[in-house]
Task: inverse folding
């Protein structure tokens, strides 16, 4: 590692915030994927001005810079694949302003997602996006990946709640994008361009986010089915009845058993699938919608449909859903969580395709996800230490993506492309569109300093 620039980094952030030892750098070499890339140096930052100075230094020395939050990402977005500087932003975690009249909150990018809602709960407000990693993921990472979550069907995803952002550009300038008015159409929509850009176009340092009033009432419903097909048809029919639920989650038999092994909460191990559903809103309307949901479940051959009796039981049900991935990860040494998304009307076909792929390769796959918006998470359980298993796993992943695209779906609903899905971009994007993305990247980052190696596809493979 060329250490010429280390003293200059120390002048910017202080020696205690520049991490150069091998052992400590290992801490910043991974995320929630199975991959590992060691940065040359990790730097803890506290404000946009420090980041700006670091970016300018990086341009002078031609050093890659990779922004990093809580490292909960599932596509390798925060990994320093080209070495260089891992820019650690978790200490930028303050609430800067709360505006209950305009339903806005301004926060630093390193704040944990769940803490945004907790900061306004005394005002009976909440921040709707709720990724599965909300207890540990950061707002900056959520914006970089355009994170979704369980409430996506009714409330939308991260991009729907960003009013304005402060960004450090790849050339070091600090700029503000967006507006805190309800309506704003001045110039290009750069906020939406940044949201989902995976840290390749700029480093988000601050955001003003939209809030909503906490619903007056909510009802959680659990429904068991003989198979995933009946459960998926139920999802389609609930929406067709005019009910837009707050959450509408599907869990298959493999995942049910994994959750029960882990939490021991009395889930029925004999069923083929379950739906976890929540309706919210005004009291009278919620009761009507809950009745409709239960009738639709019964009409689609539900083996059992019941409402949560109280808040404790409701919280247990949703804790079980949020534990799906951690429960599955206990089964095999390697857990590969995918992010296949189709239209709701095509979800039955995608579920059937995943099941056929699992049978074809004799591979254990647990499927769960946000059924209401067609976003499924087929989770491959394997052992990548065995070469034959690793090879088979890659074939399974490719076939799942091919099936998803064939159904008119997309490679990622919420996890991003990063490095894990980059080679498959050509399945979904045309070459002219990919070239346009590259031109945008080059115009923002002419020296390719910021998060290089992400969303890069070799069109000749």
Result:
């Amino acid at each position: 590692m060329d250490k010429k620039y280390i003293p200059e980094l120390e002048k910017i952030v202080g020696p205690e915030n520049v991490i150069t030892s091998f052992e400590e750098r290992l801490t910043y070499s991974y995320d929630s994927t199975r991959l590992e890339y060691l940065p040359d140096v990790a730097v803890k930052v506290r404000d946009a001005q420090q980041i700006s100075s670091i970016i300018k230094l990086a341009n002078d020395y031609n050093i890659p810079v990779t922004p990093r939050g809580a490292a909960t990402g599932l596509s390798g977005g925060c990994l320093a694949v080209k070495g260089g500087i891992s820019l650690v932003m978790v200490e930028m975690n303050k609430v800067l302003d709360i505006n209950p009249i305009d339903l806005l909150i301004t926060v630093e990018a390193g704040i944990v997602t769940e803490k945004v809602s907790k900061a306004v709960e005394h005002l009976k407000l909440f921040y709707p996006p709720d990724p599965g990693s909300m207890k540990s993921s950061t707002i900056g990472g959520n914006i970089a990946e355009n994170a979704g979550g369980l409430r996506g069907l009714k409330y939308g995803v991260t991009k729907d709640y960003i009013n304005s952002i402060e960004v450090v550009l790849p050339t070091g300038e600090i700029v503000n994008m967006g507006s805190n008015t309800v309506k704003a159409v001045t110039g290009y929509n750069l906020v939406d361009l940044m949201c989902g850009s995976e840290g390749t176009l700029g480093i988000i340092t601050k955001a003003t986010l939209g809030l909503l009033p906490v619903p007056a009432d909510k009802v959680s419903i659990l429904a068991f089915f003989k198979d995933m097909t009946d459960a998926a048809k139920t999802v389609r029919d609930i929406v067709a009845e005019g009910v837009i639920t707050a959450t509408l989650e599907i869990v298959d038999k493999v995942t049910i058993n994994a959750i029960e092994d882990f939490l021991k909460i009395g889930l029925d191990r004999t069923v083929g699938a379950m739906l976890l559903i929540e309706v919210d809103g005004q009291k009278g309307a919620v009761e009507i919608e809950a009745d409709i949901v239960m009738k639709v479940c019964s009409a689609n051959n539900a083996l059992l449909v019941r409402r949560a009796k109280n808040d404790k039981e409701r919280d247990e049900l949703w804790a079980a859903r949020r534990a799906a991935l951690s429960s599955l990860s206990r089964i095999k040494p390697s857990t590969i969580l995918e992010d296949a998304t189709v239209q709701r009307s095509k979800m039955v076909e995608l579920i059937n395709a995943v099941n056929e792929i699992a049978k074809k390769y004799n591979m254990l796959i647990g499927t769960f996800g946000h059924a209401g918006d067609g976003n499924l998470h087929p989770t491959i359980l394997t052992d990548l230490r065995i070469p034959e298993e690793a090879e088979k796993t890659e074939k399974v992943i490719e076939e799942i993506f091919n099936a998803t695209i064939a159904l008119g779906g997309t490679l990622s609903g919420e996890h991003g492309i990063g490095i894990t899905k980059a080679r498959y971009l050509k399945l979904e994007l045309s070459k002219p569109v990919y070239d346009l993305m590259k031109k945008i990247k080059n115009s923002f980052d002419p020296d390719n300093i910021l998060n290089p190696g992400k969303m890069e596809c070799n069109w000749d493979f």
